[in-house]
Write a structure and sequence with these properties.
The protein is of the alpha/beta class. It folds into two domains: 2-163, 3-Layer(aba) Sandwich (Dna-directed Rna Polymerases I, Ii, And Iii 27 Kd Polypeptide, Chain: A, domain 1); 167-235, Eukaryotic RPB6 RNA polymerase subunit (Alpha-Beta Complex), CATH 3.90.940. Helix content is 37%, strand content 19%. The chain contains eight helices and eight strands, in the order αααβαβαβαββαβαββ. It has helices at residues 2-34, 40-43, 47-54, 74-79, 111-123, 139-145, 179-189, 204-209; strands at residues 67-70, 98-102, 128-133, 152-157, 173-176, 198-199, 216-223, 227-235. It has a four-stranded mixed sheet with strand order 1-2-3-4, covered by helices on one side. It has a four-stranded mixed sheet with strand order 5-7-8-6. The longest helix is centred in the N-terminal third of the chain and has 33 residues, at 2-34.
Length: 236
């Protein structure tokens, strides 16, 4: 009987590690797609390496070890810097280091956990934080997460990261425009941003890319006649 229990526990641990490994890879792909500096080794970590680094003594994943920080690439910094590159008086880039945390608590994730997460973001001066939980967080915790002045904090459920939605063949490519590219687009067509079709910031692809209200994203679709065509959406 003891051997049977051990086998069941081992199989459960293996399933849980595999599940977290898939999410871990999705998170690194997401950071790369947003423009952060990540290595190929981190993005393509093998299951065995992940198990060795992030499992506890019983073989289950240890979420307390699963913490990520990354810096924005030069290309991302340029995209998030307002004004033309030729302007020496441009405002600072609206991006910086990002911190990702997998919350270890299974139930009742609320203001206590979010307050600790917010404190770490503020203390370490990270520009952006991603808080990943196994279960939904309370409405008051959501408000608290979105309330740190000068910081951008996001929440994901683990199940949202099991697969990379941008890899699906029906999901077109989304490309964030810089502030200068947005200005040129609106000027070319003599439009106000509010006249563009809209995409909600909570849209799965917009959330994956970390799009913020007021930004404009270019969506590139395949066409049987034109090959490819582009449309634009205003993030609301």
């Amino acid at each position: 009987m003891a051997d049977e229990d051990y086998s069941k526990a081992s199989a459960e641990a293996d399933r849980e590690v595999t599940r977290l490994w898939r999410m871990w890879k999705t998170v690194f792909e997401m950071l790369s797609d947003r423009g952060y500096e990540v290595t190929e080794e981190e993005t393509k970590i093998s299951l065995n390496d992940f198990r060795a680094r992030y499992s506890d003594t019983l073989g289950f994943p240890d979420r307390n070890k699963m913490r990520i920080t990354a810096r924005p690439s030069q290309a991302m910094t340029e995209k998030y810097t307002p004004g033309p590159p030729s302007n020496p008086d441009r405002l600072p880039a609206d991006c910086g280091t990002i911190y990702v945390e997998f919350c270890a608590d299974v139930q009742a994730v609320g203001t206590k956990q979010v307050r600790a997460f917010n404190h770490f973001i503020d203390e370490q001066n990270h520009h952006t934080g991603i808080f990943i939980t196994q279960t939904p967080i309370s409405p008051s915790a959501t408000r608290l997460l979105n309330g740190i002045p000068g910081h951008v904090c996001e929440h994901f459920l683990e199940q949202e990261l099991l697969v990379n939605i941008t890899h699906h063949e029906l999901v077109p490519k989304h490309v964030l425009l810089s502030a200068e590219e947005k200005k040129r687009l609106l000027g070319r067509y003599r439009l106000k941003e509010s006249q563009l079709p809209r995409i909600q910031s909570g849209d799965p692809v917009a959330k994956y890319l970390g799009l913020r209200r007021g930004q404009v994203v270019k969506i590139i679709r395949k066409s049987e006649t034109a090959g490819r065509y582009a449309s634009y959406r205003w993030v609301t």
